[in-house]
Amino acid sequence: MALFVPPVALARKLGQDSLRLEAPDVGSLLQEVRKRVGENDWPAGLHATVLVNGVAIGRLQGMATPLGPEDQVWLALPAGGG
Amino acid sequence: MAGGMNNRLLDVDLSSGTIRRVELDARNAELYLGGRGLGARLLYDNTAVGLDPFAPEMALIFSVGPLTGTAAPQSNRFVVTTKSPLTGGIADSHCGGDFATKLKYSGHDAVIIRGAASKPVYLVITEQGGRLEDASHLWGKGTADAQAALPDGFGKAVIGPAGENRVRYACIVSGRRVAGRGGIGAVMGSKNLKAVIADGRTRVPLARPEQYAELKKQLSKFLLDHPMTGGILPDLGTANLVMTTAARNILPTRNFQAGRDLQSVKLAGERLRDELLVKRDGCLSCPIRCGRHVKVRGREGKGPEFETIGLLGNNLGIFSLEDVVELGQLCDDLGLDTISCGGTLGFATELSERGLFESSLAWGRVDAYRSMINDIARRRGAGDELAEGTRRLAERYGGEEFAIQVKGLELPAYDPRGCFGQGLEYATSNRGGCHIRGSTMFLEATGPVSVNPHGTRAKPELVVLQQNTNAAVSSLVMCYFSAYATLPAAVYRMDPNSRTYKLIMGAMERSAPLLRLALRSRSKMKVMWFEKLLSAATGRDIGMGGLAEIGERVFNLERVYNLREGLDHKLDRLPRRLLDEPTFAGRERGVPLGDMLGAYYRLRGWDEQGRPTTRTLKRLAVDT
Prior knowledge:
The structure holds two protein chains of two kinds.
Chain A: E1 2-5, H1 8-14, E2 19-21, H2 26-37, E3 49-52, E4 55-56, E5 72-76
Chain B: E1 8-13, E2 18-23, H1 26-32, H2 35-46, E3 60-63, E4 78-83, E5 90-95, H3 99-105, E6 110-114, E7 121-126, E8 129-134, H4 143-149, E9 155-158, H5 161-164, E10 172-174, E11 177-179, H6 184-190, E12 193-198, H7 209-225, H8 227-236, H9 241-247, H10 269-276, E13 277-281, E14 291-296, E15 299-302, H11 306-312, H12 321-334, H13 338-353, H14 366-378, H15 382-386, H16 390-397, E16 405-406, E17 409-410, H17 420-428, H18 441-446, H19 459-476, H20 489-492, H21 499-509, H22 512-520, H23 529-538, H24 544-564, H25 576-580, H26 594-604, H27 614-619
Parallel strand pairs in B: 1-6, 7-12
Antiparallel strand pairs in B: 1-2, 3-4, 3-6, 4-5, 7-8, 9-12, 10-11, 13-14, 14-15, 16-17
Helix pairs in contact in B: 1-2, 2-19, 2-24, 7-8, 7-23, 11-13, 12-14, 17-19, 19-22, 19-24, 19-26
């Protein structure tokens, strides 16, 4: 089961900082997360980069990126400062 | 007389007590503006080759720029320049608060301080000039108490016990803001100078005041409407970076042994906002207010910046925000740079873990770290050794391959193994391992665009562009956070997982030829607020190209200073851990620095040994 670590706003909707999910690929994992949160509760304007082990899925196989038990999926929001 | 400047310097000799006012060289103001550029020029011209940073003859320079004191958004910053006791090269450290405006109002653009007083003193700067006052009663005090004991109404810049004891990464504190990097506070302490305070009523002469006022209004509105400067930064402070850097696997963890920890989420900016924040805080005339005022365990005080969270939290295995807040406040009060302090503590912890250094330090042991921080500032026991910084500790006890420093300056909280351009920026930064000399990571990993973080294409070009821009902006002087608003708001609304986004990022990755053209351009167009404000303030017609050229000139002068002081191309490197130990699955190595450095030198017009060629220096009118 891959580990999913969401941004804080989403973690609060889920009620936990991270969760392990059985999913063959990123698309299925995110679908499962959406189901658990509920479409109505999905944070508005959430444009987060999906990263598998720190690498954006755009550089992997997109939503079809396969997931193994050791993989970590995090979502990154644009950030800045110093 | 050019607008924007007082055209006057204060020249202080602490040994003799002589203070005189001298005219600012008009050519220096034209070529180097103020702030960082002027500081570098004055350091180069006013110090002998090979001088020890703690020698009385060493110059400590406070400088402001043509925008300082004009109440333009983000313009209230001063720069302190000297030779770094950590790196042996140039140190320029920047700070907000209100000191910059008060120094400018005193009728001076810069203060050059040389010599050493025979007993503790503080320097008072007014329109009448400068005078020295006895500071015996302030010596030994923390930065908060020292500021409270100084006369009201002045802008203040003080050192704490760390500076007095010449800790090599001692900082200067002004209000709650800190000129943190490079050990400038130690140089101030070596001069027996506890504080510099300034005030006055001299208003800044502006060449086109009505146009300037309109530009200020427009910029303020623009910054407040922008998703980064009007949304993310005011909302979460710089701590907004915690979750993003953790997600990107670039948040230093246990002395850069990893790029995150599952507990990193406990340090998130959202938690700081929702659980500890009392109110937002900010510098004079800045609409963003990214500072934090927090309440922890019943006590109110300054909240931590992202770097403090990264280096004193994650990097030490501490995952309690409350503890990080308190350690950060302790460093500020003692006058220690939180980045170098956290970096050195992390290195010492790993040394201890490997049995190479005897100490009580262990990951997550807050009490041990608190105690060591106090010992560092007072140079007691093992603290005396940590006060020398990471590089010197490695020279004595080994572990050079995991001593996370560049040119002797400890790295901030972005692991370059997940942002290769940032790695090149660290390696080539004139003041050593520093992120805010270009912030290339914003374009690779943390911001709304992401130019292949694990690629080298277009990185030399991006780094040169960013470094030149940064050098120019910090000579105005403006806060570099304003540069985060240069990417249009529309970019923030894109889906970063979409095909369109991928196509755009691919195009950016292939943009090296265009970027090279941009680097050579001397366009007179005024697109950004930087050149618009500068032109309206000074009356000079400076376009994008002109401003970039000023930045390039400043950067090259700093490089020439470093070469003069013996810092050559062999120091343009990263620690072995960051080159050889991957933190990403499937990668065999870390940052491929060697693939980028040659191209970087060529772009800069430097020879193979990283020396600016005579032609480059002549083109930029850098007198050496």
